[in-house]
Amino acid sequence: MKVRKLLDSFNYAIDGIIHAVRTQRNMRIHMIAALLILTACFFYDLNKLELLLLTITITMVIIAEMFNTAIECTIDVVANYYHPLAKIAKNTAAGAVLIAAINAIVVGYILFWDRLNTITLGLIRKIKHSDPYMIFLILIIVCIATLVVKAIFGEGTPLKGGMPSGHSAIAFCLATTIALVSDEQSLAVLLSYLLAFIVAQSRVDSNVHSIFEVIVGAIFGTLLTIILFNIFG
Fold first, then answer.
1. pTM for this structure?
2. Residues annotated as part of the active site
């Protein structure tokens, strides 16, 4: 009987995690980010202390998001009407998640920046000497790859809606290309990514895409561009 109750408690806990991932967009984003970071650990020589710090940081973000979800659900049950204190509670819980996420970014920067810096500088030097026609070819490949992914998910149309956001993918592909080939790094990178962000934001404001679809499109366009440059550059 005690064993059954113990198993039930584990099942309830797992159900809570699954519910948060299934229903909370931010939770899915955190999970995807955690998978990417943990995958990157296979390619870099992190010591035990660094792995421990990284694991604790990822866990803090996920726990904060789950507490945020629990608080929101509790408030919705108790007060199914607008109340200023309910708003404060929800905003405070969301603020805790934001702090945990910012802390994760800082930890990731400290752990990975020096390791990525050497690879990044070498890649940028390689790209700057690339054939201009190759840049145009990479843009076409990103466009085709985006359409293929849209077809796989079967949502929206080729030019409107669906997963991922095609406009966001192409905008961040162009921004990444400009950032990699430009000699005036600071100004070019800032303006290119600012314009890409405006394009992505416009797709959300027009209710064509969700924030998650836009973020996936931006990540897809950026990473695919870097990978193609690294292969063909």
1. 0.53
2. 65
